[in-house]
Amino acid sequence: MLLRFITSLLCLFCFIAVKSQTPVTFNKDSYEHIFKNKEVVALEDSTGKLSFDVISSKAYQDKFVPNIDYYPKNYNRNAAYWYRIKVNFEDNLDKSCIIEFFDQVTDYIDAYFPDTNGNYVHANSGADLPFKQRLFQHKNFEFLIKNTQKGDYYYYFRVKSKDKVNVIIVFRTIERFIQYGLTEYLTYGLFYGMIFIFSFHNLLMYLAVRRRQYLYYILYILSVGLYEVSIDGIAYQYLWPQHPVWNEYAYGIALFCISSFAMIFTKELLHVKQKAPVFFKLINITLLLRLVFFLACLCYNPDWFKFKFIEFIPLSIGFITGIYILWKKKYRPARFFVVGYSFLFLGFIIKIVHILGYARHIPGALGYYSLSFGFLLEMIFLSFAIGDQVRILKRKKENAQKQIIKQMQLNAEMKDNLNKQLEAKVEQRTKEVKQQAVALMEQNETIEKQNDELLQKNELLQHQAEEISRMNLLLEKDNINLKTDIEKVTNARVNATELDFDEFSQKYPDKESCYKFLAEIKWERGYACLKCGNTNYCNGKVPYNRRCTKCAYEESVLHATIFENNRIPINKAFYLVYLMYHSKGAISSHKLSEKLGIRQSTCWAYAVKVKKVMDERKKDLKGTGKSGWSKLVLEKNS
């Protein structure tokens, strides 16, 4: 019972609301009116099957509800919406009038207008219909009013669109429509003309200086132009009027190109890779994700192109990157970049607010074309940014040229001074040469005389040279014998008594002599490769290393010796082993440090290692005498 009462109240309220729908009054002086708020009543047809005869019947008159938005919207994109407006003509209008719809992405619009006989005339239009079916060859949707006689009239419109649209219904006289259309197309001509001029100018700059940023900027501007002609309906009018399906893809492709080329241009213009590596990586990741989303929309579900808000992400990243480089890196062209993106950002926000119907106090043209204005101002300031960058490069080039010219002047001055000095020196030297020539002539006479004497002496010297050669041969034999005796004496002395480091170094003065000694005792029984057992070898990369000729394995001369992984000079390591053996391990690490000039901790570590080997080989070292220290060098299993 309560439910029936509430239902009755709602029906009564709706009936009262319908009956109280205020008509919009027009007279002879009226030329334009935009229907908004409660001037429009709406009926949602969730099935999409209601006909005009049904909704215009008395049973459905009370089901229309007043519009609560500034402009009506199709919140349920799967449903069809019926809209009704009430018009009152105070006078008989002697001029033709039209009803116009603005949103160019509306798929289908069916209009029902009363004629002079009281019947309703049907007309249709929409973005999914061929362009030639429109009443006027215009980017918007127009319907001619059939009856402008004095009285009250109801107009019905059925709107069906898979995109969310603003149902902006406008009454205009034909004269006002022509004036408005010419002005609008003139504005579009100026806008796209500027796009063409910007593109052509930057193309010339690219051909002149071959900087890639101009090419990316051209592609960005052309992408903006493609997006604008797609959403304005101009592309449908002039580029693909017989293919409405392109309307579903064109703006999505254009948005992808805009965001992609904008971020690439940002990287090139602001040198993001050098000035902000983190943002450089972020932009690359965003480009990749944007490409993936674009391919998903293109190949899987074109309806995803409608999520235009996703472009807010690359726009924000580019904007924040410009602010960071301007604030942190003080890069001057970034200031124009930030200003341009600020206008685009503002236009983007105003456009969203306008679409949502919250911008009631913003002028209609500014709200509707805010994104176009933003793109235009952005292009202007981005051109300033490119120009600023060119000025900076030009200034650097001029400074470099000035420095080159200055250096060339200094070089010329130095050259002149050197030439003068050389001329003076040549003149002085010429005088000296002349004097020396005279003296040489006198000396030649003396020399000729001396030559005769020398010839005689040469004969005598030749005989003496033969005698000296014979004596040299005898001396060489004696020297060889002497060296052999000295080496034997040194070896005997090394093995007989404790020597200091200088005396010990006479036997092992450097690394090569130590390596040679190790190689002789290491391979005194012959060489055999540790990997394959081959007995043939060649020299390795390090002196006295041996490389297997079969498997190329190189065995270090230090391998399997007490000096493997040695970190002190090899000759000092030799002397340390010698001292440890000679003292039978009794010498202290402090004494070793004093003799070798090495840190006490290092001497202690090596002494412990040698002492351990000596203890392990006591039996092997018995009877070896003073020369037994060399037996400690090789590992026991070698």
Task: Give a verbal description of the structure.
The protein has 638 residues and is of the alpha+beta class. The chain has 4 domains: 180 residues, Sandwich (Immunoglobulin-like); 210 residues, Rhopdopsin 7-helix transmembrane proteins, CATH 1.20.1070; 104 residues, no CATH class; 33 residues. The protein is built from 19 helices and 14 strands. The strands form 3 sheets. Strands 1, 3, 4, 5, 7, 8 and 10 form a 7-stranded mixed sheet that branches. A 4-stranded antiparallel sheet has the order 2-11-6-9. It has a 3-stranded antiparallel sheet with strand order 12-13-14, with no helix packed on it. A hairpin with a 5-residue loop joins strand 13 and strand 14.
